[in-house]
Amino acid sequence: MIEKLTTRALNRATLHRQLLLDLVTTPALDVVEHLVGMQAQEPFSPYYGLWSRIRDFRPEELASLLEDRKVVRASLHRATIHLVSAADHGRIEPLLRPFLHRRFASSPFGFVLDGLDSDTFIEAATALAAEKPRTRRELSDRLGARWPDRDATALGYAASYLVPAVQVPPRAVWGKSGPAAWTTASTWLGTAEPATTPEEVVRRYLAAFGPASVRDVQTWAGMTRLKPVVEAMDLRTFTDERGRTLYDVPDGPLPDPDTPAPARFLPEFDNLLLGHDDRTRVISDEDYRRGIVVGGKPTLLVDGFVHGTWKIAGDGLDVELFRPLTSAQKADVSSEGARLLAFAGVTGEVRL
User: InterPro entries, per this entry (predicted)?
Assistant: First the structure.
């Protein structure tokens, strides 16, 4: 008989694998690789995501990794900007490239390539990005001059979707600023790691997000047709309270569902909230309907589940709670909030 996992059991398993039960002392690069990338459409979200997972994390560590080209920001999972290690970009990007091309074709800008030879376009866009880092506006202007009968803005979007490209510093470097400028991955990173297999991506996903369903992994990656891949692998199986079949790596840890879960402040679009099709393991259906996940609001976890949102102001931390806290929970949130303010370099109070 297949074991059934309660929502709380899934919560604790996922928090443990996401490094959110206990802070770790693992280097930031290793954490980024363990998580198989971090959502990064907001440039500084990964800093807070790493702070919430790594003990004594300093932003300079990630800033140096970006400037040293050991991690990069690129359109990957779900066609959104992700922070990944340089090695993982080479491993994963080729698998996601067909999806990125399909995603662009179905986007509001896909019309721009109608009747245009895509290979010729990609060659021209690649040459421009390889020459030097360029903003999307610069790509639009150059490509629009090449094809004046086409919508220039759409051509710029086509380049950023269809060319294997990365965003370069000073974009997303802590304490600095800069426009989103793109160059080719091969120009910025040199020789790439060999592409990995769908099986290895599934295995790494389950190690960081599992146990999970086929739809969960497809939602996270933006890939399709993974069911035969998953079903052919040597994986453990469970069911959840909704009757879905869940898969897991053979050695995936399953902590006691009663394991304490400290308060955690997560950045907008943290992959904990985006890494599954069924998100009830971390957020209730009621709270999901508030729009805070797709709307990109930073979230507060209490007892492992989304319990509110937060925002740093010039004079402190404002926390919007969805439900009252116990006195112990309030003390835990206030303590973690004070730690967050110290990390952000803001002097003030935690306002619940």
Answer: AlkZ-like
180 pLDDT higher than 80: yes
DSSP-based three-state secondary structure for 236 = strand
Using a pLDDT cut of 90, give the percent of the chain over it.
90
Residue appearing with tokens 């805070």 = 292
Cβ neighbours for 120, distance < 8 A, ≥ 6 positions apart: none
Q: Measured between alpha carbons, how far is 90 from 84 in angstroms, rounded to an integer?
A: 10
| Residues 256-289: tens digit of each pLDDT | 999 999 999 999 999 999 999 999 999 999 999 9
pLDDT higher than threshold 90 for residue 343:
yes
339 sits in which H/E element: helix 327-344
Q: Is there a contact between 305 and 272 (Cβ–Cβ < 8 Å)?
A: no
DSSP label of 77: G
Distance CA 292, CA 299 (A): 8
Mean pLDDT, the chain, as a whole number? Answer: 95
Say if CB 195 and CB 87 are below 8 A apart: no
- Rounded to whole angstroms, the Cα distance separating 10 from 15 reads 8
Q: What is the DSSP string of 98-159?
A: HHHHHHHHTSTTGGGGTTS-HHHHHHHHHHHHHHS-EEHHHHHHHHHHHSTTS-HHHHHHHH
Residues facing residue 298 across a β-bridge = none
Q: Are strands 4-5 and 236-240 parallel, antiparallel or unpaired?
A: parallel
For residue 327, what are its two tokens? 């006195």
Residues 6+ apart with CB under 8 A from 280: 7, 242
Q: What is the pTM of this model?
A: 0.95
